[in-house]
Hints:
Blueprint: H1 2-10, H2 30-34, E1 36-45, H3 48-56, E2 57-66, E3 72-81, E4 84-96, E5 101-106, E6 109-116, E7 122-127, E8 134-139, H4 146-158, E9 167-168
Antiparallel strand pairs: 1-2, 1-8, 1-9, 2-3, 3-4, 4-5, 5-6, 6-7, 7-8
Amino acid sequence: LALLLGLPLALPAEPPSCAPLVxxxxxxxxxxxxxxxxxxxxxxxxxxxxxxxxxxVKHAAFSFSxxxxxxxxxxxxxxxxxETCVVKNTSKILVFWHNSTLAHVDDQVASMAKLIxxxxxxxxxxxxxxxxxxxxxxxxxxxxxxxxxxxxxxxxHCLGFTEEDIFFTS
Length: 170
């Protein structure tokens, strides 16, 4: 009996289950659902230039509006980087319908991302750089429920990030 009671202690603990990040397959409702105001909440990255920006961003809000054609969105960004306020309205989001990918183009520099399935008032982007995982979270409101935030942290954990790797805005 003592052997049986001690058995559960000897078995390895189950690793946390990591549900795959499911990208959104774009349809006619996807892009209109992205239009409007978003507040950047948190992000994590192993890509050195993104990491530096994540450390510097203290607050960020951005909005998407229709571009000159259906495959383009205009972006307006307002950020506080350390103690400097930055307003940018020169970048675009290009929509690639055939593979449900978004490209943020700013000064001839493009970064690609997949929109991850989540709550309609959340914007989770998995940036496509296979060598350096990057995930970001934005929301319609500045506050996100504890449950949704824990879900985001679980996704980050599955990508190999620790709590110390996550940068939140203030």
